[in-house]
Amino acid sequence: MIFNNFGQALRVSVGPYALLIAVSALIFWSLGLISVLGEIAAGQVAPEQLQSFGGSIIIGVLAVVVLAVFVAAWVAVSWHRFILLEEYSGILPAMSGRPIWPYVGKSMLLGLLIVVLGMVIGLILGLVLIPLSAFGEAALVLGGAVISMLMVAILSLMWFRMGVALPATAVGKPIKLGEAWEATSKVNGTIIGIVLIIAVVSFIAGVATQGLYEIHPILGVVTDLFVQWVNLMIGVSILTTLYGHVIEGRPLID
Predict the structure, then answer these.
(1) Cβ proximity of 104 and 65 under 8 Å
(2) Tens-place pLDDT, residues 13-32
(3) What's the rounded Cα separation, in Å, for the pair 77 and 100?
C-alpha cells in the first residue's frame, strides 16, 4: 500500500511535516528560544537560568504539540481518503472540507481510553511481580520485561480494534468505538498477528537505528526519521485496511 504508492505517500506527509518544522522553528524563534534550546540540548544551561525561560518554553512546547497533533491527523486523514476514496494530493494535501479536527477528537478519546485501560491492566499485571520478588532481582527484571511486552501487545490490540473508528471519521462516516470493537471481532487473530510482527520489526529497527547513531549522529537521525515515517504510514495503512475489510467488505488481500 505504501511503497506501491510511494509518491502519493510522500505528498500527503512530507509537505505537512516540513510545514510543522518550519512553523515550530518560527514559534521558538519568536519566543527567543532557539539559542536556549540549543544550549539545553548541549547541557550548557544551569537550572537557575532555565527558570527565567520556563514560561516561554512551556508556551512554545504546548503550541508545537497542538500543531504536531493537527499535522499527524492531517496526514492520516489524507492517507485514509486516498486509499478509500482515491483522493489524490498535490504538494500539500487539502484541508478544506476534511474532518481533521473530528479526527483529532476521536484520536484523543481513543488515546485517553487506552491510557485508562493501560493503568488498570498494568495494576493487575503488576500484582504478578510481587511473588517474583522472592526469586531475586533477576527474576523481577525478567518478569517486568515480559509484563511490559504483554501490556504493549494488549494495548496495541485494543488500539487497532477500536482504531477502525478513525478511518470511518476520515471518510465522513463516523462510527462509535464500541461499534469498531464489535466489527473487528472477526479479525481478532489477524490483528494479533499484525501486532506481533510490528513489535518484532520495531525492535529490530530500534536496535539498528541505535547502532547507526553510534557510527555517526547524522546517519542515526536520518534513519530514525525514516523509521518513524514508515511507522506512522504503516499504522495508518493498517487501520485503513481493517476499515475497508470489516466495514466496507473489501478483501484483506487484493
Answers:
(1) no
(2) 999 999 988 898 888 788 77
(3) 7
Q: Is the pTM above the cut of 0.70?
A: yes
Helix (H) / strand (E) containing 141: helix 137-162
The 3-state secondary structure of 99-127 reads CHHHHHHHHHHHHHHHHHHHHHHHHHHHH
The span from the CA of 160 to the CA of 58, in Å, is: 32
> CB 246: neighbour CB atoms within 10 A?
19
The domain segmentation of the chain, as residue ranges, is 1-98, 106-254
19-23, 57-61, 137-141, 198-202: which has the highest mean pLDDT? 19-23
Q: CA 251 to CA 253: how far, in whole Å?
A: 5
Q: What is the DSSP string of 185-213?
A: GGGHHHHHHHHHHHHHHHHHHHHHHHHHH
What pLDDT does 124 receive? 85
φ and ψ at 233, to 5 degrees? -65, -35
Q: Kindly report each contact of residues 142-151 with a partner whose C-beta sits within 8 Å and lies 24 or more positions away, as own/partner.
A: 149/199, 150/125, 151/118, 151/121, 151/122, 151/125
Alpha-carbon distance values, 31 to 28, 55, 68, 145 (Å): 5, 10, 18, 42
Average pLDDT over residues 200-224: 80
Give the alpha-carbon dihedral of 157, 163, 165, 169, to 10 degrees.
Answer: -170
